[in-house]
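COURSE: Structural Biology Practicum
ASSIGNMENT: Worksheet 4, Part C
STUDENT ID: 0417
INSTRUCTIONS: Below are two proteins. For each, the amino acid sequence is given first, followed by its structure token string. Answer the questions at the end about the second protein only.

PROTEIN I
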Amino acid sequence: MTDCKFLFSNGVISSSPDVPAVATLLQSDPGAYTTTRTHSDGACILFWERHLRRLSNSARILLSRSPRLLFKPEKSEISFPPSFVESSAWDSTVKSLVKDSVDQVLPIALREAKRKEGEELAITTLVSGNAQKVRGIESVIGADSVAEVLDIYVHLAGYVPPAFGRPESAARLAVVGRGRRVAEAKYSDWVRLRKPLERLRPSLVTELLLSNDGDHLLEGCLTNFFVVCRRKGDGENAYHYEVQTAPIADGVLPGIIRQLVLDACLSKGIPVQELAPSWSERELWQEAFITNSLRILQHVEKIQFPHSWESLEHKALEDISWEEKQFGINPGRITSIIQNEVMNKADLEG
């Protein structure tokens, strides 16, 4: 994979070696962000309109519920005029600023990055507020005022999508932490907040899962989480299957691929329920998979769960004993059907 990186920051384009890793960028500035990638050798951006809508929605949620997650820290508390929070210009302005920024840097990155065969570009866009500029805002808020207080960053780097279905592409998960605050928004401070969970990551685990009660599984640090669960039917010894994933109301990110999975289940007649999978019912789990906009859909080989949830945060990794749920090294039938449907949507929608 190429190590060439590009950063577009308020009209200025930088390239390697002056560009930090995307995690460094996200830890440096608060704000709402989204990550996606190019598709079909850079021909389009995956589900770009959906990402723009969620990004603008995340910014508005942070503005109204937790401004410190959107704006750079100030010595004094930030105070916003009501018209600023309620401005109808927010959504359209955020989308326009981000789209214009990506349109400027992406063609340059595609032209100059020496990508290998099968390599795409990961695209992370961060919308960060400048509190100092808010103080000069008048009572009447329009698109120009909203644009004035926002800084836009676009980070691009080479990314090779994992090949679905191969044993070496299977995910290995461990449940190690509690759910996020303001989970319905995607914000950069989560990159910093999740770092302490890394000390509890077992060897070979590729994603960390979150739970608030030590039973119901919410999401991963970087992904949404699904299981294919066996349920008893009406007849004797009859079973049927349903896909389960935690509802947004439980505190999970409304992931772009998450919604596409729900849509795929409906279109293919696969029963689906927005219900947080329960570890105590894991014997009914037949398949599991995780989703995000880089990996799209990744089947799960194994899940580890701490034997003692209550004392987890006070223990070192070597002192934790784990229970395990093992799946096959290859994706199951339902997982494969859903993955194929989502990728068909990617080809149609981009």
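PROTEIN II
(use this one for the questions)
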Amino acid sequence: MDTTEFRRRGKEMVDLIADYLENIEQRTVYPDVEPGYLRSLIPEEAPEEPDTYEDVVKDIERVIMPGAASPACTELETVMMDWLGKMLKLPEDFIAGTHGQGGGVIQGTASEATLVALLAARCRAVRMILASDPQRPETGITSKLVAYSSDQAHCSVERAGMIAGVRMKKIPTEQSDKYAVQGETLRRMIQEDKAAGLIPFYFCATLGTTPSCAFDHITELGPICNAEKIWMHIDAAYAGSSFICPEFRPLLNGIEFADSFNFNAHKWLLVNFDCSTMWVKKRSDLIGAFEMDPLYLKHDHQESGRYFCTDNSLFRSLKMWFVFRIYGLKGLQDYIRKHVELAKEFESLVRADQRFEISADVVLGLVCFRLKGSNEVNETLLKRINNGRKIHLVPCLLSGQFVLRFALCARTTESRHIREAWQLITQLAEEVMQELPH
């Protein structure tokens, strides 16, 4: 959709909304559809090829409006999460369907998903211990709980531990292991903590870390967590979108061992903020941790997977429905592949210049690089780049080195933008190096 069509479609959408408001009194206050009505009206999977915009808009009236007050909001969320789960080829345990025990729910951010999973894990751990030792005080349990994450994990993981009131231990990673958590390291920390009287209960694995897009070895880590009855949550906030491509799906191998999985569809899947998609293997773990049962929320289908949703007023799933249909699975895959190709193009430019070095493997759309030299030189270069206001880079520290991160983010980025960015970077690098004392 180019800008000309976007203007036209935007005006049409305003007319549709205005018509709805003008005729709202002709509609029923309460929907006359039965819960579960929506799933039979739309396909079980996302389309491979794009649908037309006209067909999508027609389906608003056909599919959504009959249950607009409720239950369309919540039912569409469940179905869209199943669509996306199938695009990712998640195990059946994570698909709600009509009889599944798991399913997906949309959060606002990956930070929220990490916290939700942690709180659910804490609740499950406490209940498991009380089931075998009913006389044990709950405070005596929670004070012993310990959670784990990589030292490369996003700061929100540590913050989740602070909010939940549990200790969070960082697992050290090494450059030689490509900054990925190793199974043996986790196993050793668990055994040491158990020997000290602590209760390991939660591990947050990361697929696509913020600093360098590193991938924890969940095929090693998952069986350890399962054997120790530790909840394994997988945070793939950025990288998760790429798993819809068959060539990147192996990065998710080991998902079958996880209790929960999350990524931000608003990061790399063309869905507008906010839309952070989270799946759990047993939705009863989440429902049990946060269940409130006031009279005004009671209904006949509240235990059904159709209603496994956080807030039926936000309607985030409608954004997913539009994007999946307008682009189709192939269109979304092409979009991701193009970004990866552009990242590889930038990587080749960096490697061809002997003044620079690549600091981490380029797996997806992130390139970590730096000038060969001191951290101070690279800090100066970054300030020059960002002060120029033509491109913006965010740094990280890898093994004590100050590293520049070139991230492919924009829908409209082309090869010429990569070349222009590199020309600017090398020009500023030359200026910085000329100012160094000889």
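ANSWER KEY EXCERPT:
Q1: The longest helix spans residues 316-351.
Q2: Residues 76-315 form a domain with the Aspartate Aminotransferase; domain 2 fold (CATH 3.40.640.10).
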